[in-house]
Every structure is written in structure tokens, then in C-alpha cells.
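A quick aside before the break. I want you to see a complete sequence-to-structure record at least once, exactly as it would be stored in a machine-readable document. Don't worry about memorizing anything.
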Amino acid sequence: MRHGEIKLFKVGQCAHFESMLFRGGAWKSVRIPAIVGLVEHPSETLLIDTGYAPRFFEATKTFPEKLYALTTPVVVEQSLSEQIGNTQVDFVFITHFHADHIGGLRDFPHASFIASRKGYEAISDAKTSRFSKLTKALLPALLPEDFAQRVLFIEDLPRVELSTSLHPFTHGYLLLEKYFVIALEGHALGHYGIVVGETFFIADAIWDMKTLTQSRLPHPLTSLIMEDSVAYKQTVKKLQALHVNNPTLRLIATHERSLDV
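That is the input. The structure line, written in C-alpha cells, reads:
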């Protein structure tokens, strides 16, 4: 399915209580998709995240990583590499380093990565215990061994002033001379979204559009796994204002269940 200039794919899903996604949700288990984007431009092909992959199950076979698989049951019907076939991928934009966003990185051995330096340092820091990383949904085993040699850090991109159509977000980074990368703080360390044409891929800045349209924030318990719950709420407010000020801009959240993908 094409939304604006981005082709969307569902790459695996997990199960969790709907009530965690937004306040007032049912205390029942629902299927939550992992959605990724593919941007095919004459100059290059860009992936936005990679979703889950069968490698997730290898990475969560042993303790403590096994706790991830037990508390968040995952199903992968078809990996991203299988879905896009022989499409040559030049770049993979990583919104953040949670396992459901980087599961398929190893399937693209010739691609360059674009990611946050802070996010990479968090997942690769040898001084941080495996358990501590797990509490932040980080699985280092999903990273390609040569990741550090293939990554371009977002913080090193040209910093630019954004047009009023993207306010209240005023500054971002320019990627490949045509995409705008914008910090969406709170959910995870080094969490970024990307604007492609009239589409803003906002990753996990929200988990359900009701958060924007009805101000129904995630359950308070989710603050335990967020990097900064105060910053998260501030980001939501900015997105709400953007949604009102620029209703034609399509907002795509990674786990939005209502998307026809």
C-alpha cells in the first residue's frame, strides 16, 4: 500500500494489552503490527526501519533476553527482505534501536545506516549489562557486526530550519538533500522521525492515533519503559499541534493498527 511517497509493509507483530496503547483501551490482548517504510527515489532507495525478523527468536533464546519474548509474544509471517524481493536498498534509516525496528538489519549487508549516535552508544556500550539493555528493549545481537563502519549519524547531518508547515517543530536535519529528520524525544534515546514529501513517519512517538485525536495517552505503566515520560508528553503535544496546523500531512506511526497495510 502506498501512502504519499512511502510504500508501507507490515513486518511481524507482537501481542499486548490494548490498554497499554492508550488510556481507556480494553484489558485484552491485541495484535500490534510493526510497520516499515520503503522510499524508492531515482537517486536511491531508502528503508525506514526493518521491523521484526526471524533473527529475533535467536536473539531471545537465552536469559535474560528470553524475558522479552515471553512478555511480548512476537509473530513474523514474512521478513522484510522476503517482502521486497530483489529491491536494492541503499540506505536504512533507523528511527531508534528497539528490537522491533532493527530486527532485519542483517538482511541488508550492502546498505548504509542512518541513526542516532546516542541511540547507538546505548545499545553498543560494553559497560552496560545485558539486563539493563533489555529493560530498554535493546538487543545488541540484532546489529550487524560491521554496523559502526556503515553508519552515518543523524547528529552529523546538516542542521536546518524547518518550514512553518512543520511547526511547532522548528529545526531538524537534512538527509540526502530532500528528507527532513526530526527529533521526537521521550520514547527512546535517540528517537527520530522522518518527513518524506507529505508524509511524516513518526515511529513510536505515539502507538495509536487516538493519542493525538482524543488526547488518550498510553497507560501510566508504560512510563517505566520510556526514556523520558515528560519529554514524551511534550512530543505528543507538538504532534497534536502539527496535526491541527497541517491536516494534509500524513502521520504514520509504526504500530498504528488502523492502517491498511
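Two observations worth writing down. The mean pLDDT is 95. The first strand starts at residue 2 and ends at 3. We'll return to this after the break.
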